[in-house]
Every structure is written in structure tokens, then in C-alpha cells.
Amino acid sequence: MVELKNVDVHYRESGVEALNDVNIRINDGEFVFIVGDSGAGKSTLLKLLTHEMLPTKGRVFVNGYNLSKMKKSKLPKFRRSIGMVFQDFRLIPNMTVFENVAFVLRVTDRSKKFIRQRVPYVLNLVKLADRAKSYPSQLSGGERQRVGIARAFATDPGLIIADEPTGNIDPRLSYEIVELLMDINKCGTTVLMVTHEHDLVQYFGGRIINLKDGCVVFDDYIQGKNEG
After folding, report:
1. Cα separation of 34 and 20, whole Å?
2. pLDDT tens-place string over residues 132-173
3. How far apart are alpha carbons 138 and 1 in whole angstroms?
4. DSSP string of 9-52, one letter each residue
5. What global pTM score does this model have?
6. CB–CB of 80/155 below 8 Å?
7. Residue 228: its pLDDT value, please?
8. Do the Cβ atoms of 95 and 135 come closer than 8 Å?
9. What is the mean pLDDT of residues 11-23?
10. Radius of gyration of the chain (CA)
11. Helical packing angle, 171-186 and 141-154, nearest 10°
12. Can you list the pairs that 217-225 forms with residues at least 24 positions away whose Cβ atoms lie under 8 Å?
């Protein structure tokens, strides 16, 4: 579960009020689009959810952790409960597709046997089993992002946060990336997708949280065009 209760974030240096009295509750297993123009507060919201910063006021809960009171010793375990998908992919260039996905499992001390089983499973899920020995430079933008999704899902996190995951790929492939995230959501993983691409949101529909000037101005479900 993800929950923000009466959250404010004020940047004292600049005087900017990034979030104002934000209240959001996202239940386990939901798929949620978070939308808003530049400066609406999306980046600040993500920093709160990943414990990169604390709110000026209010409380933040993610995956059973009270982030406002979490001890530093619990931060690594908390971070492992979240999978991140980035706009710029952030793959390790001198590692193969298999090695990029395996890397996140090795740093969490998973066994070699587990890695040998898990990596092929997630690569098959994102339809990249035949690219396991390829390097990032040999992949298209869409393929690189699918590796990023596989890496995020490899540790079987409770929550995946996708930050503008379609921003650096061919617009024609954006729909495939969202469909892939929705497939992962069907496995029981909560997915939050931050995007400015309103066409995607209107096509798929579902729960939409719209931020404007640091406030939640819309939080409801809409019917997607693909459902009509």
C-alpha cells in the first residue's frame, strides 16, 4: 500500500511549495497513472516515495514502512521492495541483457541457482529471451526499456515506479511498454506510472491522479478508448 496523509513539501531555499496537503491512498495491486505538467510536483512525489527526501509536514507510508520514522538501517530493505523503471534506461553498457538483470539479484544476495531460474523467466515475460547475450548498444530504445522493466521486476517487488518510461522511445512502441507494465500488474505488483503523455492515459484509462501546482486536482477512474 502507498499512502500520503496531509503531505506538504516546501523548499526553503527557493520558497517553492512543491506539494500542498496531498492525500493519496493506493491499495496493493492497483495500476495508477500520475500525470501533471512540468512543475506540478511529480518529481517531488517520487522522491518522497523512494525516501530520497522527507515531507515538510504529513506522513508517507510505502509497502508497510512509515517513511517519516524509518531508521537508516532499514533503508536498504525498503529500497529492495521497490522496482524502478527510468526514462533513460540506466543499463550498464558493458553487461549483457542477462547480466544487467542478474546484477540486481546479485546485489541482494540471491543464490546463483535462483538467478539462473529467475532471469530467463523475466526475460521471457518481456519477450527478450532471444536477446539475453546482447549488449545495450545492440538494442533498440524499446528493447532497452523492456530490459529496464525486467530488471525492476526481477526482485519481485511489491511496488514498481515507472518514471516517464516511454519518454525516450519511439511513440509507436509506447503502447507496448504500458501493456507490459499492465501485464506485470496482473501478477499482483502495484504499478505507479508517471507520464505527461495524455494520449496514453486516455487510451488505457484506469485510475488517474492529476497533480497541478502541488495539489491533487483529480483522482478518479476513467474509461479508456481501448475499452469502448
Report:
1. 16
2. 999 999 999 999 999 999 999 999 999 999 999 999 898 889
3. 38
4. EEETTTTEEEEEEEEEEE-TT-EEEEE--TTSSHHHHHHHHTTS
5. 0.94
6. yes
7. 59
8. yes
9. 90
10. 18
11. 20
12. 219/24
